[in-house]
Design brief:
This protein has 10 helices and 7 strands. With 221 residues, it is α/β, with parallel strands linked by helices. Bound molecules: cytidine-5'-diphosphate (CDP).
Length: 221
């Protein structure tokens, strides 16, 4: 038997739909690099807010992005984005970033900057001898890796998702971020044709991951 083929799993979905928890478990189960692209958008947002650059100031955004030096380091199985050598702090999960991230993420300049960086995670995964990668976000199965081996789209009732965030002790405008993410012109949040749709409203995390695993295992050599 030859070496196993490199596999790419894309998981998209709205805020607090269960992407992170399920993709971390899949990463462990199948020896994959875990890539949380939301953390990249959050880190850039934090950095632009710190520099007091408004999303409306396109030339300042372009200049700031050109100046940022991006690198990746591993944190366990997860890819961590460094900007100017610095990892993101806990602030990227705070309310200030929650309130602004979708406005910066709607900018084509920001998305184009991250496109190459995200695709570059394949090289990171190979370099560290992972069997593949699982990448979570909003446009992974539609734009970043439309040819991924597996593409999942997670749904959950908005009330249930708001409840999940509250349980984590986090204040988050889940519905407002979904509205902005779904209505933007560039790479809006939607379930691409051919992706496997999972409604997790009444499912436990184990059940969601179980459905994904069954699907993946059935197609792996
Ligand atoms: O974890 P949660 O679902 O709250 O959000 P996240 O994955 O951390 O993403 C934060 C924000 O980044 C989203 O609301 C989007 O505005 C943006 N994002 C995006 O536009 N495209 C991605 N691939 C990932 C995140």
């Amino acid at each position: 038997m030859g070496p196993s083929p490199f596999i790419i799993i894309a998981i998209d979905g709205g805020a607090a739909s269960g992407k992170s928890s399920s993709s971390k478990i899949l990463a462990d189960r199948f020896n994959l690099l875990h890539v949380d692209t939301g953390s990249f958008y959050r880190h850039i947002t934090y950095e632009l807010l710190r520099r007091k650059i408004s999303p409306a100031d396109h030339s300042a955004i372009i200049a700031a992005l050109a100046e940022m030096k991006f690198a990746t380091r591993l944190n366990g199985r997860s890819a961590e984005m460094l900007i100017g050598g610095q990892p993101a702090g806990d602030e990227i999960r705070g309310q200030h970033v929650n309130d602004h991230v979708s406005h910066y993420a709607a900018l084509p300049e920001v998305r184009t900057t991250l496109l190459g960086y995200q695709r570059g995670q394949v090289a990171v995964a190979r370099q560290h001898a992972f069997r593949g990668l699982v990448m979570e976000g909003r446009d992974i199965g539609s734009v970043i890796f439309p040819e991924a081996n597996f593409r999942f789209f997670l749904h959950a009732d908005p009330t249930e998702r708001a409840r999940r965030r509250e349980n984590e002790g986090r204040q988050d405008s889940v519905a407002e971020r979904d509205r902005l993410d779904s209505s933007r012109k560039t790479s809006p949040l939607h379930c691409p044709p051919g992706a496997v749709n999972i409604d997790s409203t009444f499912l436990s995390l184990d059940q969601v991951v179980g459905q994904m695993t069954t699907f993946i295992a059935a197609k792996l050599p």
